[in-house]
Amino acid sequence: MDNHDKILEEKKFDLSMKKQIKLGIVCLARKTFDFQTAYQIYHKLIGKLKNIESVKWEIIENLIIEVEDAKKSAENLAGKQIDALICISGTFALGHLILELNKTIQRPILLWGLKELPYDGGRIRLNSVCGINLNASNLYKAGVKNFYITIGDEVDEDWIDAIRIIKAFSQAHVGIIGSRAHGFFNLDVDELNLFEEVGVLLDYYQLSDVFNQNIDYHKLEERKDQINSLFDLSDLNSSQIEKVAELILKFEAFMESNQLTSIAVRCWPEFADKFGISPCASMSILQSEGKILTCEGDILGSLSMIAHQAIGGETPYLADFSQVDFEKDFGLLWHCGVAPCNLWDGKCERALDSYFAGGKGVTADFVMKSGRFSMLRIDYTPGSYRVFIQSGDAIPMDKELKGTYAKIKFSDHISKVLDKIIYNGIAHHISVVYGNYIRPLEIFAKIKGWKVIK
């Protein structure tokens, strides 16, 4: 076990763990339909739901049939502080029920319809889909738009993941270190509007707050050994290696002492001059350990990465859409050298380099691994938020550049993908994560009433 793996083991952090949430579940019914069978189906479904990872369930065991049942159940679940409500239409039911539940709970709702059972003597037994129609119409016309629909024998786990994103944002504490990078106006947000939309409050700190952060210098040698085990350091001097290790400890201690979910760092132009190196290499290592740090003071880049992490994406990172080849139909995701070092392709030489910031560096250099990936940008334009999502494949390439990068292809031609970014004014940073993480973000946007660009 090398020093990097040893540190990860000591932290006991599962990089693919989804955000823990608490969900309420109820089943509505009416005695003019086959409510006894609906009750049996409901309890079979509960047994299956308990196998879903990172969900605590608050279950109303009995069917909700009368208005008084709905009121009591709503008070019960509201007191449990659930994050969202799953409402199964066991049968068609009174229209009052969903409205009473929503009036008190006021959380996102999944309206879950059951498949119709075989007819019994010419009588429809559940009429569940019609119940979904009634409830959706009542909610919509009451101005409640944060509901979603599923019909079938399985819960929609992508909806559950969308709730994880909402929960992660509600608990997120994002620190801005030194504001955004010079001239990057497109990364700004309306702070109070952001709080209204997702519940995130931002705190601002000076670069000097990080530079002056107290650390445990006994851990410095361990971090230096880790750096040596991860990278070819032939381009660096001993002072630069020491600075990388020191900055890892400073970032880590700063986030812990200020209870920060993420930090968005003004990483240039002052950082290298004032601290002696740029922060890229230190950020690369910390991101590989599950920390969320974003370049250039990018607040919504932080939120995009938090969203990816909430739904199980391992070590998301920010990249620029830096190159396109229209004839060969590929693009290049590149950044100056900050991607998590665990995403290395395992073939090229993984190195630290001082080419950046007038030779002060220090950045990571390697080709990213091949495989399916998903891209996300939660983006702001005056008056509204949007979600830009794409999936594609990272394909093998030789190490020909400084920095961290991946050659990518999409199902659409690269020119079409670029047009979506350019003509919608999407900011130039994109959160990237390996795997398929598209549909939960579409559902999240639907719940929030945000536009989806894909």
Overall description:
The protein is 37% helix and 24% strand. With 454 residues, it is α/β, with parallel strands linked by helices. It has two domains: 21-155, Rossmann fold (3-Layer(aba) Sandwich), CATH 3.40.50; 170-453, L-fucose Isomerase, Chain A, domain 2. It has a six-stranded antiparallel β-barrel. Strands 2-1-3-4-5 form a five-stranded parallel beta sheet, with helices on both faces. The model has no long low-confidence stretch (mean pLDDT 95).
Q: Brief overview, please?
A:
By secondary structure, this protein is α/β, with parallel strands linked by helices.
Topology (elements, then pairings):
Blueprint: H1 3-11, E1 21-28, H2 35-49, E2 55-59, H3 67-79, E3 84-89, H4 96-105, E4 109-113, H5 128-141, E5 147-151, H6 157-171, E6 173-177, H7 191-198, E7 201-205, H8 207-211, H9 220-230, H10 238-257, E8 262-265, H11 271-275, H12 280-288, E9 292-294, H13 299-310, E10 317-325, E11 330-335, E12 351-353, H14 356-359, E13 363-367, E14 371-381, E15 384-395, E16 404-410, H15 414-423, E17 429-434, H16 439-448, E18 451-453
How is the largest sheet built, in terms of strand order?
10-11-16-15-14-17
Helical content band: 25-40%
Superfamily at the CATH H level of the largest domain? L-fucose Isomerase, Chain A, domain 2
Regions with little confidence, pLDDT below 50 for 5+ residues: none
Structural class: alpha/beta
